[in-house]
Amino acid sequence: MKLGVQKTLLAAVIVVLLVVAIIAVLVVLRGAGEEETIKIGFFAPLTGPASADGIAARTGAEIAVEIINERGGILGKRVELVVYDDALNPDQAVAVAQKLIQLDGVVAAVSGSYSSTTLAASQVFEESRVPLVVAYAVNPLITEGKRYVFRVGMLAETEGKAAAYTAVKLLGYKTVAILYIDNPYGDSLAKTAKEYVEKYGGEVVFMDKFQFGTDDFSPWLNQIKAIDEEKGVDVLLIVGYYQHAVAVKQAKSLGIQAQILGVEGFDSPKFIEIAGDAAEGVIIVTDFDRDSDLEMTKEFTKRYIEKRNLDPDMVAASSFDAIMVLAEAIEKAGSLDKEKIIEELSKIRDFPGVAGKILYFTENHNAVKELTLQVVENGKFRRYAMITEEEIITPSK
Questions:
Q1: Class of domain 35-154+293-365
Q2: Least confident window among 16-30, 32-46, 93-107, 282-296
Q3: Taking a C-beta distance cutoff of 8 angstroms, is the pair 53, 111 a contact?
Q4: What's the rounded Cα separation, in Å, for the pair 55 and 307?
Q5: How far apart are CA 285 and CA 252, in angstroms?
Q6: pLDDT digits (tens, 9 = 90+) for 122-167
Q7: What pLDDT sits at residue 35?
Q8: Structural contact between residues 301 and 312, judged by C-beta atoms closer than 8 angstroms
Q9: Is this model's pTM higher than 0.85 or not?
Q10: DSSP secondary-structure letter at 181?
């Protein structure tokens, strides 16, 4: 019996040793596989009401990774983009951030999402000391006071100043009506626009807000039309997203003759699709210049059209830039040390972004960059003018 027990114990020990050896080999192989790539996280609203923007943003990020890998990767390693859907839900964005950091072990991440989800996720990255580069979300609190969070897109405040400058200084108009979405993006942008319209000598003759899901704008537009008939409305500034292109259609169908001015939320092929012929002549404040002579812009546009059979938009261009900026910082850091990556992000100067040349980052890690006005001509966005005035493009402290 003793011999049989000994044989059984010996066999069990051998099995355990074999299992341990197999696990050790798998761990080594897994570790080797991980070392072959640099993982960069990415999240965007790939489903839900903002899915058109989310898919565009993801495509822009994927094109950036393609180009980086074709050039030899970062630090000689291929880049792997780890993508999750936040569904425009802040709680889901927090869960996604935790997955990217704890399970996927990303070196850094890019947000291709809106302000609510990006703000929620940014706190996770900040507390975990993992760099996050924000593509286009405009809420100032996303970066304010955070060491590990940077933004390559515009602030709502900057867009508001640029819209006021366009209406009063560039176009030479005096009376402005402002219709804006009831969220932090719309509120901040509209209030700044009003402040600067008045600062530049213009007058805001109407200002009111609407909810995200609004599809009938006639209550506001009829008021604007009455004001127009009484004292004149030169410019109608609409602060919303591409879904609110219906407001442009309704304004023109009511006979409102004011120049319609929009912002980055209208920078999408979906805006032109929804507005139809009413989109013609609409001017928007954005940072993606389709007519740029930059070779990278041409290459980005070519690849985007090949992938989606659609023209690229601001969110795609900004997500592309966010990946490229991050790649440059990692390469200059010379390692995957997150503190060094942050230091190199802070040092970036005159970066030739597809969505505007980034001159530098402020103390709150917001990009100071060139802006552009795009006008719809024959169903396409075309360059109307560039905005490079320091007072406008520099966020206040």
A1: alpha beta
A2: 16-30
A3: no
A4: 12
A5: 20
A6: 999 999 999 999 999 999 999 999 999 999 999 999 999 999 999 9
A7: 56
A8: yes
A9: yes
A10: E
**For 168, which DSSP code?**
I
The one-letter amino acid code at 71 reads: R
* 358 bridge partner residues: 351, 369
The four Cα atoms 66, 307, 315, 152 give a dihedral, to 10 degrees, of 20
CA 208 from centre of chain: 26
In one-letter notation, the amino acid at residue 264 is: E
Do 35-154+293-365 and 157-286+377-393 show the same overall fold?
yes
Q: Is the pLDDT of residue 171 over 70?
A: yes
> Residue 259 and residue 251: Cα distance in Å, rounded?
11
Nearest residue to 287 via CA among 323, 325, 313, 260: 313
SS3 of the chain: helix, strand, coil, percent, to 5: 50, 20, 30
pLDDT at 128: 98
Q: Are 272 and 295 in contact (CB under 8 A)?
A: no
How would you write 45-108 as a 3-class SS string? CCCCCCHHHHHHHHHHHHHHHHHHHHCCCECCEEEEEEEEECCCCHHHHHHHHHHHHHHCCCCE
Burial, 259: exposed, middle or buried (Cβ in 10 Å; 0-12, 13-18, 19+)?
Answer: middle
Cβ count near 34 (within 10 Å): 13
Determine phi and psi for 110, rounding to 5 degrees.
-125, 135
Tokens 């108009």 belong to residue: 173
Residues 46, 112: contact at Cβ < 8 Å? Answer: no
Cβ atoms of 79 and 69 within 8 Å: the answer is: yes
The pLDDT score that the predictor gives to residue 397 is 64
* CATH fourth-level superfamily of 157-286+377-393: Response regulator (3.40.50.2300)
SS3 231: coil
Helix (H) or strand (E) holding 176: strand 175-181
d(CA 82, CA 316): 17
Domain map (residue ranges) of the chain: 35-154+293-365, 157-286+377-393
Are 189 and 163 in contact by the 8 Å Cβ rule? The answer is yes
